[in-house]
């Protein structure tokens, strides 16, 4: 027995030493593994801007990789485009994540079966009509002609104004006056041509909501594209004149055309490109967009339309408002997911694939956000980049870096105003719910739920507030829509478009 106990003591001693060495050993392994993964990521993300091949070969040495990194422009010089996949494309390769996607498809099937069964019970037959879709996308020829005019004008006017200004700027004896003249022409085109024209057509032709959304969102997109093109190229011309260069850096029209179709709002002469087009991938993404459209249709048919017409029969009271908001959370969240998936993932990836556009980071992992500051940065990277480089940083360049808070507030205000402008034109009335959520709660939450909040409880708080916000948006805008349908006013004044009709409309259907 003594011998056995003598044998056990060294074993226990070795076990204790092993447990003491385990944390250091695991830390060392983790360090080497992280370094190895970072090296692989660096090798796969390097660009060759002069070639269509967007990646460096995997056999690059560490010295070559370091040299290539140093050739990149620093972040303050603008956005760096690199070849990378969309996050959902990577996540869907994991079976557990793909199962969540399958669950949403199963929910769509349940919505379809529910609608068909209810219609069969009520009508005694299957009703396969899609009257709501036909209505909201009505007058499509007017939409197409309006878009074609907007696009052709954006191709011709900003590009030629820039070329005429750049070609004569070097030899001009009145450079400031010349710049002011062409700048005023460009501003006039942005405000009157792209600004007033499409809005007038959408209102005067009484386009239905979805058709108005197409026109107005394309209007905003082209305005932002034209601004980026001018903003990125004017400094290049000024720099060439300062350096007394013999050539004026004017982009080719083909580069400008590619930019107008590319899924980015930041202009570059060249972008990282993929070597081939996967047409099967393109077809899949467009099919998913179409499926998301029908998904939204069934959400409105089963969860929204049965609820809101009845609200016009009741007086406006706090209890009814609270019930309406909480009943609207589910359709609101589903619509949020569909907008994200259909547009930011499927639509942008489809066009990126057709154009061989290799930088697919249109969004980041916004669902993991523990702060609203991070949520705003990761939800829509395409728009965030434009706001960051052309609104936030230009504000700091003009007023100084001491005014970061003012710059952030100005960006919030501009973003809120544009969102409210889009909804006001598309719905045909001004009900600034989204503007108030942006400028009041959005700014407050941006300071309270800031980047210092890292725990999972903050992610729960972020999702809870997001759910409530979607419920408020769906509830109030839907109530106002039906109130204006059932309580129309004869010869309404401008103030009547600003007053909420749902607060005073109690007519029975």
Describe the secondary-structure layout.
Layout: H1 2-45, H2 62-70, H3 87-91, H4 95-123, H5 131-136, H6 140-169, H7 175-204, H8 209-242, H9 253-261, H10 279-304, H11 308-311, H12 318-327, H13 329-354, H14 372-379, H15 381-399, H16 404-427, H17 433-448, H18 456-486, H19 494-498
User: What is the helix/strand order?
Assistant: HHHHHHHHHHHHHHHHHHH
SS-derived structural category = mainly alpha
* Radius of gyration, taken over Cα atoms and rounded to an integer in Å: 28 Å
Q: What's the total count of β strands?
A: 0
Weakly predicted, low-confidence segments: 1-9, 40-76
Question: What percentage of the residues does DSSP assign to strands (E)?
Answer: under 5%
Integer average pLDDT = 80
Amino- and carboxy-terminal Cα gap: 95 Å
Number of helices: 19
Largest sheet report:
none
The helicity comes to: over 70%
The global form is globular
């Amino acid at each position: 027995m003594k011998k056995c106990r003598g044998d056990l003591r060294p074993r226990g001693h070795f076990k204790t030493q092993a447990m003491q060495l385990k944390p250091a050993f695991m830390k060392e392994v983790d360090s080497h593994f992280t370094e190895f993964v970072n090296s692989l990521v660096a090798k796969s993300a390097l660009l060759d801007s002069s070639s269509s091949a967007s990646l460096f070969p995997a056999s690059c040495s560490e010295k070559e990789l370091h040299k290539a990194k140093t050739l990149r422009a620093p972040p303050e010089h603008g956005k760096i485009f690199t070849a990378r996949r969309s996050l959902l494309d990577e996540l869907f390769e994991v079976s557990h994540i793909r199962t969540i996607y399958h669950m949403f498809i199963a929910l769509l099937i349940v919505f379809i079966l529910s609608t068909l069964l209810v219609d069969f019970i009520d009508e005694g037959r299957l009703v396969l009509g899609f009257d709501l879709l036909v209505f909201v996308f009505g007058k499509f020829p007017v939409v197409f002609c309006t878009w074609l005019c907007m696009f052709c004008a954006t191709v011709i006017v900003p590009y030629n104004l820039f070329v005429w200004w750049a070609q004569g700027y070097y030899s001009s004896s009145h450079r400031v006056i010349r710049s002011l003249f062409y700048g005023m022409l460009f501003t006039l085109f942005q405000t009157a041509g792209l600004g007033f024209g499409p809005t007038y057509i959408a209102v005067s032709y009484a386009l239905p909501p979805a058709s108005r959304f197409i026109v107005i969102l394309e209007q905003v997109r082209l305005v932002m594209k034209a601004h980026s093109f001018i903003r990125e190229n004017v400094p290049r011309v000024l720099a060439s004149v300062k350096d007394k260069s013999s050539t004026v850096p004017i982009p080719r029209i083909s580069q400008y055309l590619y930019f107008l179709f590319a899924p980015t709002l930041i202009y570059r002469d060249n972008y990282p490109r993929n070597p081939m087009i996967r047409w099967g991938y393109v077809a899949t993404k467009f099919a998913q967009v179409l499926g998301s459209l029908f998904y939204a249709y069934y959400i409105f048919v089963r969860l929204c339309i049965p609820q809101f017409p009845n609200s016009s029969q009741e007086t406006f009271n706090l209890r009814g408002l609270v019930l309406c908001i909480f009943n609207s959370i589910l359709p609101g969240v589903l619509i949020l997911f569909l907008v994200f998936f259909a547009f930011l993932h499927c639509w942008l990836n489809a066009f990126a694939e057709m154009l061989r556009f290799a930088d697919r980071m249109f969004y980041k992992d916004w669902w993991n956000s523990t702060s609203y500051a991070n949520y705003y940065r990761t939800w829509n990277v395409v728009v965030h980049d434009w706001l960051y480089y052309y609104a936030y940083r230009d504000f700091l360049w003009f007023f100084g870096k001491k005014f970061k808070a003012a710059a952030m507030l100005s960006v919030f205000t501009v973003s809120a105003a544009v969102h409210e402008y889009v909804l006001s034109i598309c719905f045909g009335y001004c009900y600034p719910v989204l503007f108030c959520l942006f400028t009041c709660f959005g700014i407050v939450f941006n300071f309270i739920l800031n980047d210092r909040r890292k725990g999972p409880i903050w992610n729960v708080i972020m999702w809870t507030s997001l759910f409530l916000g979607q419920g408020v948006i769906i509830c109030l805008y839907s109530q106002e829509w039906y109130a204006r349908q059932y309580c129309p006013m004869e010869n309404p004044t401008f103030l009547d478009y600003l007053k909420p009709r749902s607060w005073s409309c109690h007519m029975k259907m």
